[in-house]
Amino acid sequence: MSVGTTTRDKQALRVISMLQNWSDRLSGHVTQKRAHVRKSLVTKLTVIIPESCQEAGESQDRSMVEVWTRNISQGGICFISDGKLKTNDNIVIVNIGSKYMESELVRDRQVHDGFWEYGAKFIKEIQM
Predict the structure, then answer these.
(1) 1 in a structural domain
(2) Would you say 68 and 12 are in contact if contact means Cβ atoms under 8 Å apart?
(3) In total, how many domains does the chain have?
(4) Which run of H or of E encompasses 8?
(5) Is the residue at 2 inside a domain?
(6) N or C: where does the chain have the smaller number of CB atoms within 10 Å of the terminal CB?
(7) CA distance 86 to 93
């Protein structure tokens, strides 16, 4: 799924650009321990929040959420979402092409314009 041209898509791309500029400025000043090399990937994906992981009392169906990716590695993915994801146990399923990866949200922070940035660690590929 490619990134479209809606107003929110444009805002998401602007936020990703700001985050990347910040990362580029810190590059060389901050030591990062990573098991896998990250590759830039700016596209739209679907994140599925398993029903058992949704917060109790959710009034609207938030089980499938479109997100915008920043980068990906063999071990995980970084993306932004329009608002905070609501899960009980930080487990989501990331749909990447024809693959579905069960993933653990290991990092989150509110960034700009109501977007939240997430780091998700791949646990295993699952069949859907």
Answers:
(1) no
(2) yes
(3) 1
(4) helix 7-26
(5) no
(6) C
(7) 13
Give the pTM: 0.80
77/86 Cα distance (integer angstroms):
18
Q: What is the DSSP string of 42-80?
A: --EEEEE--GGGSPTT--S--SEEEEEEEEE-SSEEEEE
Report residue 120 as tokens. 């998700």
**34, pLDDT greater than 80:** no
Q: Residue 26: which domain range?
A: 7-126
**Residue 122 domain-assigned?**
yes
For 107-116, how does the pLDDT look when each residue is reduced to its tens digit (9 = 90+)? 999 999 999 9
pLDDT at 62: 53
In-domain check, residue 109: yes
CATH code assigned at 19: 2.40.10.220
Percent of the chain with pLDDT over 70: 78
